[in-house]
Amino acid sequence: MSRPTFTPTPIAGPELYVQPDALKGRGSAWAIPHRFERNDRDQFDDGWGTLDQEAREEHLPPRTEVMEEHAKKILSSNQSPDIGFDYSINPYRGCEHGCIYCFARPTHSYLNLSPGLDFETRLVAKVNAAQRLRETLASPSYQPSYLCIGTATDAYQPVERKLGITRQIIEVLAEAQHPFSLVTKSSGVERDLDLLAPMAQRNQVSVYVSVTTLDSELARTLEPRAAAPHRHLQTIRALSEAGVPVGVSVSPLIPFLNEPELERILEAAAEAGAQRAFSIPLRLPWEVNPLFQDWLQQHQPAKAARIMARLRDMRGGKDNDARFGTRMKGEGIWAELMHQRMRKACERFGLGRQRHELDFSQFRAPAMEAGQQSLF
């Protein structure tokens, strides 16, 4: 894996000042050390009231930084039998949406950055993504297969409005008539309807919009810089009216938090034009576990113990279960109950649960750009 040309420096971490409980517009204020950290830092009182003084001082919230990366490759192969695609494309590392539950947060550890605050404030943009994709698709050995955009980052997070990397990728896929699916919780996908709609007519694209909650107050802390819940539904409607096959992802499903909304979300999505649906119970891999539990204590203290107890009931008594076959659906009576609710609600609202089958027969290798030599 290539690394961005960036030397990290600590941002407002616990080693610098008393960590605030929350930062406006951020999912986490905690620059939690990543799991590869060699040094363990802690605060101490030097006898001069330093900690009290720093607690009283005002600290400017961290700004979003974007670092450029020239990726060696852009397609990532999937090795998990739980996931229904063969390759994925993530135009960015990190995500400004700041969803506290994001299972991809631990990937920032490989960059020597915090999966907490750094994940949503220190982003990496793969500026040559379209070029690398073109080279890959033009290779004589390449065979088209199921491809998904935005699996470990939102391809339409705010920085995309300026950089347009996702649009460049879709332009290459459209030229090659390469089918793909896309998952997002951003209304920014509407910008690219001019590319998506013609591909939909050729049965070469499907989009899933993530609707975690219909409660705007909950969304404001759970996923602070994502689109508001009503905009998610408007995006589903816009895609549907443009003829793009669209589904809804009610993920992650968190007991006692957004789980009671399951049927209402599916009904609202179906009314907006969604044709398919899926849902995944909350996963808490690596650093996501302490980050999420810290968030619960700050924002949902009355429910925190119940939520974690139910999650453990669904994960074999553990906070997280990474085993293939169970990690995406859980196990036990409560996991089965949610599965039955999902199945019955989808039947009631006419939502399919299988992926939209795409047409790979029209694929054609894209032309290499002038002056560009193939690597193959």
UniProtKB/TrEMBL annotation:
GO molecular-function terms, A-Z: iron-sulfur cluster binding; lyase activity
Transmembrane segments: none
Keywords: Lyase
InterPro entries: Elp3/MiaA/NifB-like_rSAM, MJ0683-like, rSAM, rSAM_sf
SMART domains: Elp3
Keyword Nuclease: no
Gene3D superfamilies named in the record: 3.80.30.30
Designated name of the protein: DNA repair photolyase
Source organism of the structure: Roseateles depolymerans
Lineage, highest ranks first: Bacteria, Pseudomonadati, Pseudomonadota, Betaproteobacteria, Burkholderiales
